[in-house]
Model the fold of this input.
Amino acid sequence: MKLNYYKDTDSLYIELNSHASADSQEVAAGLVVDFDSLGNVVGLDIQDASKKLDLSTLETNSLPALVTKLIAKADERDLVNPT
Amino acid sequence: MKTTRYFEEQVLRKRSYIKRHWCEDVIDRPLKKEIQTDGRIKFWGYIPEMGKYLRVVTLADGETILNAFPDRNYEKE
Done:
């Protein structure tokens, strides 16, 4: 699972797995769910993410992940002229 | 066509069924256009290849594409 946040647009994409989206549906304002060809949810597209989620803390509990990556570097492109 | 990194790195990558030129066409010749409260702009167009209406969202400049997805709830005026 991957969480990809873009500060310049306040957009968050939560990729649940690597399967391609075959269909997408807006289920609430600013929330689009991606489905694979079998109808499984494969991703969540969240706009105005900082207004809807607490992005200041990421906590996992009993996640059976063998590998955890924390990529928290500031992208200089996100720091210039946010729109 | 101007795009955000989010659109290039997430939307087009994950939703490979959406073609870039469809988004351009929708913005160029929208069936409907609506300005959101945050200034971003929604455009709608019918895509025969999908058999669905496509919603394209741009930043407030009306040209930098942020998002695109099929809109089942689209209602013609």
